């Protein structure tokens, strides 16, 4: 249990949030399937990404830490060996689903399992199309739930319209497609984060996109590269909110990834009339910027449609922002929240209600009426890192203590979260 109490704090100074989780996972995966030594700087040493490292080590890939750098000795797809042990993916949906795509094309047997949250998350969105491509996969609920057993091998030509906008699903099929005999064609219903596509180009491979159609050719090989992981905008979102909702605040966030498939939170801050500025600082494959933000007088807004995949992980903290915005904020088209680390519609609504928020769940999102003075209460992260961080940020504006059950889960994506929060609050 963590107890937090702040008395009218301000959020001030400069902060550099840890590396992007999605990019960190992919840096290990591409480092492992490339040939040569890949160096990764800015890697997120959170539990999720450490689980990815562990899985690749179990497939014979040498991965070492050298101070702040991670070194991966890649030997191509064919360098991956049949693991002697179960591949344990912890709490990480990205590790589980992307790994399935890689394993689908490998001519060996493996077993993938994760923690109790992963055990409840749907895997058939990935296992069904991978089976159609030619992989043999089995598991509980006819291959929908972990533990999953995979016997990979030759994969054939495949065209698939994704039934849900999911970067994990898209990436799993791309990773299988890279090993296929022929072309793989994937059609996305809405644009989702494109880190896998960018990583392919960075490592010298090719992938085409025309409108919503992605084409990947098979039998690709990659050359080792240096990957510089930008700060995670999904982690930055907690500090952007902390500064916007507290008085006399002024915060500078350095080296944040501002890939436009991830910047939905910036669009929401704009719509809410927040006082902030984004300054791009490079023009690399993965763009990086600085964001400065001050205490803001917020207006309610509507969050829906194509914006949802660009901020899917930020909805818990956007709900908190909305409790401080003037008017009715409506979040819709976000059914996917029900199959995240927790059912995030229920978790956000029930936990924020404990703090006195005026918030109601809907079938595909939530409706929040603001502004509301929040009050202290006993809350529960429910083992979901983003719920835990949202509740910690909420404690900055409650009158009374906020107790958070199971705060340890925050180490999944942000091991130094409480230290960083402490360092910018006064
Ligand atoms: C991720 C994709 C998203 C996101 C998750 C990371 C990725 O999941 O919620 O935190 O790295 O590809 P979905 O693909 O299930 O939407």
TrEMBL record:
GO terms for cellular component: cytoplasm. The active site is at 313 (proton acceptor). Pathway: Metabolic intermediate biosynthesis; chorismate biosynthesis; chorismate from D-erythrose 4-phosphate and phosphoenolpyruvate: step 6/7. It catalyses: 3-phosphoshikimate + phosphoenolpyruvate = 5-O-(1-carboxyvinyl)-3-phosphoshikimate + phosphate. Its main location: cytoplasm. GO terms for biological process: amino acid biosynthetic process; aromatic amino acid family biosynthetic process; chorismate biosynthetic process. 3-phosphoshikimate binds at residues 21-22, 26, 166, 168, 313, 340. Gene3D superfamilies: Enolpyruvate transferase domain. The keyword Kinase does not apply. PROSITE patterns: EPSP_SYNTHASE_1, EPSP_SYNTHASE_2. Its EC number is 2.5.1.19. It is found in: Cytoplasm. Phosphoenolpyruvate binds at residues 21, 93, 121, 168, 344, 386. One of its GO terms (molecular function) is 3-phosphoshikimate 1-carboxyvinyltransferase activity. It comes from the Bacteria. Residues 10-421 form the Enolpyruvate transferase domain. Keywords: Amino-acid biosynthesis, Aromatic amino acid biosynthesis, Cytoplasm, Transferase. Catalyzes the transfer of the enolpyruvyl moiety of phosphoenolpyruvate (PEP) to the 5-hydroxyl of shikimate-3-phosphate (S3P) to produce enolpyruvyl shikimate-3-phosphate and inorganic phosphate. HAMAP family: EPSP_synth (MF_00210). Belongs to the EPSP synthase family. Monomer. This is 3-phosphoshikimate 1-carboxyvinyltransferase. It comes from Jeotgalibacillus alimentarius. The lineage of its organism: Bacteria, Bacillati, Bacillota, Bacilli, Bacillales.
């Amino acid at each position: 249990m963590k107890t937090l109490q702040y008395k009218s704090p301000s959020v001030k100074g400069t902060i550099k949030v840890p590396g992007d989780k999605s990019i960190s996972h992919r840096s290990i995966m591409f480092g492992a399937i490339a040939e040569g030594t890949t160096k990764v700087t800015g890697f997120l040493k959170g539990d999720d990404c450490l689980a990815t490292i562990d899985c690749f080590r179990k497939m014979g890939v040498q991965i070492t830490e050298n101070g702040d750098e991670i070194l991966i000795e890649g030997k191509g797809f064919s360098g991956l060996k049949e693991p002697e042990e179960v591949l344990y993916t912890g709490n990480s949906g990205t590790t589980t689903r992307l790994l399935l795509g890689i394993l689908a094309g490998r001519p060996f047997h493996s077993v993938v399992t994760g923690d109790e949250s992963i055990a409840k998350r749907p895997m058939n969105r990935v296992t069904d199309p991978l089976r159609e491509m030619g992989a043999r996969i089995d598991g509980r609920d006819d291959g929908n739930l972990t533990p999953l057993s995979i016997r990979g091998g030759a994969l054939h030509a495949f065209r698939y319209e994704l039934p849900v906008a999911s970067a994990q699903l898209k990436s799993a099929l791309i990773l299988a497609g890279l090993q296929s005999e022929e072309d793989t064609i994937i059609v996305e219903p809405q644009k989702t984060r494109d880190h896998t596509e960018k990583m392919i180009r960075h490592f010298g491979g090719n992938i085409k996109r025309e409108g919503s159609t992605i084409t990947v050719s098979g039998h690709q090989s990659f050359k080792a590269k240096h990957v510089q992981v930008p700060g995670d905008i999904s982690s930055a979102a907690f500090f952007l909110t902390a500064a916007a909702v507290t008085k006399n605040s002024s915060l500078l966030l350095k080296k944040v990834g501002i890939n436009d498939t991830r910047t939905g939170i910036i669009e929401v801050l704009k719509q809410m009339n927040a006082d902030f500025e984004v300054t791009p600082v490079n023009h690399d494959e993965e763009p990086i910027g600085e964001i400065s933000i001050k205490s803001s007088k917020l207006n309610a807004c509507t969050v829906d449609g194509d914006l949802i995949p660009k901020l899917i992980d930020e909805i818990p903290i956007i709900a908190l922002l909305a409790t401080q915005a003037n008017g009715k904020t409506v979040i819709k088209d976000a059914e996917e929240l029900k199959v995240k680390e927790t059912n995030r519609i229920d978790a956000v609504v029930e936990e924020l209600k404990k703090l006195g928020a005026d918030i109601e769940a809907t079938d595909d999102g939530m409706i929040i009426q603001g502004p509301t003075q929040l009050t202290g209460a006993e809350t529960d992260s429910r083992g979901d890192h983003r719920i835990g961080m949202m509740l910690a940020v909420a404690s900055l504006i409650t009158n009374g203590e906020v107790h958070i059950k199971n705060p340890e889960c925050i180490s999944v994506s942000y091991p130094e979260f409480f230290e960083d929060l402490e360092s910018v609050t006064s």
